[in-house]
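Q: Here's a chain of 402 amino acids. Please give me its 3D structure as tokens.
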Amino acid sequence: MAKSSTLSGLSKLLPEIEPVEGYTSTLLSDLILINQIPAPTFHEVQRATFVKQRLEEFGLKEVRMDSVGNVCAEISAGKVDSGAVLICANLDTDLGPEENIFVSIDEEMALGAGVARNGLGVAGLVALAEMITKDEISIKRDVILAATVAQEGEGHSRGIREVAARYRDRATFAICIQGLGLQRIGHRSDARFGFEVRCTARRDDRWHASAESRAIGCLSDVLLELYSIPLPKRAETTLNIFEIGGGARSSMKADAVLRGELTASDDVIVDKLDKILRSKVQKVAEATQQSVTLHPTGRFRHGGLSKSHALVRKAVEVHSLLGLEAILGVHGRDGSVLSETGIPTLTVGLSTGGFLEDGTEYVDIPPIASGLRKVLLLAMSAKGRDVRKARSESASGAGRNE
């Protein structure tokens, strides 16, 4: 009966967000323009400038680019001590400058490298700002919008860390927007250690071995050592190597690089494996007499909100109202940072999609309206007492075993 009553209360909000359908075409236009502005990590300024201009077009007065390049805007609810909901999406991509980022649109799909990483998320953030300002959707608390930089790789999530530090005392809770994952509700963070191993080798005139071949051979030794590390069967422990490639090279030296991540549901395990991993890299450096170095690219602590928490239950109820399956899971990088900072956070996706057989990245267009409704309903319906409890739980690290 209680659940039926809650859904009934949520359904009363649906007429207020009915205009969502009318913003899909504008969102797709923004998606094309945003996605076709290159934004590799540390080079997001053009994309950030475009987003800032779009937000200013809606009449928002509190729009600024901060010291690290994030674009932040505020929409006031006009109430004292109403708290704020922070809604964010990352601007940068892991695509290189050589990638073709042209976007094509048909009735069912938007196709192009980067549309789901995170072109749609940023376009959705802009669309939400326009809906809230033009249609006067009643959020009943201040809204802080943040398009963040430097999430990927060596960016170490610098952008979202700056946002978390600035707004942690004002943000009652946060919603991180991703392009994909329409059914997913990220509410917890795994312990994670991201790393990069770089092998720099010089030409060996005695053996006439090229610097490039020596660097690759050195990297192969590193891989063998890493995969020899025994992983605990408990705590969902994984070691993922997700990128291997060459770096700068000359006639005398060359770099070979691999990037990976350790994950587990236990911080102690990740800390121990971190030390083992470093010792393995050092072993290869000593054996090959080459420069082999490990550089951390991110460390996230295990924590977040429990499955039974009121804020998570509210997200499940919103999914039910919209006819979406609710799949509970882990945050991405931004959600992990906010959660670790003590801001109760949910990570949600706006649509479905993936990669076609030929490798083309795509997002499905019809579900986008449901994704936008989901974010609006979460921002509108989370009750103050639930959110305050969520903040207390997030700060104490509750739910770590769920």
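Q: Can you summarize the key feature?
A: The chain has eleven helices and 17 strands.
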